[in-house]
Amino acid sequence: MTQAIAEARLSVAKSRIDDLEADARGAGSLEETSRVDRHVEALRKAHASARAAAQAAGSRFEDALQELGTRLRIAEHRRAAEVARTRDDFVRSVEAELHAWDSYLDQLQERSVAQTRGGRAEVSTSELRLRRNEAARRLGDVRTAPDGVWREHRERVFEALDELDHAAGTA
Fold first, then answer.
1. pLDDT tens digits, 87-137
2. pTM assigned to the model
3. What CA–CA distance (Å, rounded) separates 81 from 79?
4. Which one, 24, 53, 152, 160, has least CB within 10 Å?
5. What is the per-residue pLDDT across 126-166, written as a single tens digit (0 to 9) for each?
6. What backbone torsions phi and psi does residue 146 show, to the nearest 5 degrees?
7. What is the DSSP string of the chain?
C-alpha cells in the first residue's frame, strides 16, 4: 500500500472519530458523553497505532487499520444504542455492536495465534468472548422485559458492554 493511500484511509478514520465525538458532545447526557469519551480515547490510541504502523509499513499497518475500523464500528453502534428511543432500535444497535465485537475478537484471535502460537492468547480471547456472551444474554433480557421496565435492563446491557470494552482495552 502506498503512503498516500495509507494517509487517505487514516484521514477517513480520523474524520469518523471526530464525528462520533462531536455527536456525543452535542446531544448526550453526561453519562453518555463519558461512555463515548472512553471509546474515543481508545479510537485515538488505535489511530495513533495505525499511523505508526503505516510509517513502519508491512502487515502490521493493515492489522492496525483493520482493528481501528472495527473499533470505529463498535463505537458507532454503541452511540446509536445510547440515543435509541425505542426498544427495537436499541436491540438492533446492540446486535450490530455485538456483531462488530465478533469481528474484533476473530481478528484478535488470529493475530494472537500468529504471534504466540496458542497459549495465553486463547485464554484472553476466551475471556473476552465470555463477556461478549454476557452482554448478549442481557440483551435477551431487554427483548423479553415488559414495556415499562426494558429501559432498566438497557443499563445492564451497557454495563456488560462497558466491561467487555474495558477488558478488550487491556487484552
1. 999 999 999 999 999 999 998 888 777 666 545 555 588 899 999 999 999
2. 0.70
3. 5
4. 152
5. 899 999 999 999 999 999 999 888 999 999 999 999 999 99
6. -60, 155
7. --HHHHHHHHHHHHHHHHHHHHHHHHH--HHHHHHHHHHHHHHHHHHHHHHHHHHH-SHHHHHHHHHHHHHHHHHHHHHHHHH--SHHHHHHHHHHHHHHHHHHHHHHHHHHHHHH-STHHHHHHHHHHHHHHHHHHHHHHHHHS-TTTHHHHHHHHHHHHHHHHHHHHH-
Nine cell digits for residue 72: 470505529
**Which residue type occupies 80?**
A
